[in-house]
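Quick note —
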Amino acid sequence: MNIKKSGLLICITILTLEPVTRAQVYELSPAGSKVIITGTSSLHDWEMDVKHFTSSFQLDHEGLSVKNIRKVIFNCKAHDIKSDNSLMDKKTYDALKADEFPEISFSGTTVSDLISEGTSIKGNLKGTLSLAGQKHEITIPFKGTLKDRIVDISASAELTFSGYGMQPPTAMLGTLKTGDKVKVNFTLQYNQKDI
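Predicted structure written out below.
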C-alpha cells in the first residue's frame, strides 16, 4: 500500500471514530407555547399573558446528546402583554414605558451546567434582557425534552420593576399597589427547521 492510500485510510478511520457535532436551528411553535407573567398586589394576585412572541435557538448535538445551545433569541412587544382588565393593561404599559420602548427582547449568551440525559435536558441560560429602555444580564434555569424534531422547554425568571427603572403600577388612587417582584413563566415548544 502506498503512502497516499495509507494516509487516506487513516483519515477515514479517524473520521468514523470521532463523534460528529451537528448544529440544528429550532424555531418557536406558537400553538404549543405560552408565556404567563404573575405578580402580587395589595388586593389580590394577578396574571397577564404575552399574546404574541417569537423565539429561536441553535442546538449542537452528537447523536442524541445535546452539547450546547446557542443563539437564543426571544422578542415580543410590550403592548402584546394582556390581562382581562383594560385598566391593568394601561397601567402596565405606562410602567413599561411601552410607547417609548415598545420592544422587549432577550438574547442568550451562554449556557452553563448543561445536562443531557436521554431525551431530557436542563441547564442555566445567561443572557441580556432589554426592557423599558434598560439592559441587564439575567440567568434563567430551564429544563426540557428533545424528541422527534421537537424541543419542549419550561423555564421561569424573577424580575423586579425597580431593577429596570420602573415604578410598580398603582390604581384606585393608590389604594391598589402592585408588588415590585414579578415572575415570568415560559412553556415553549420549538420545531426543528429544515435547512
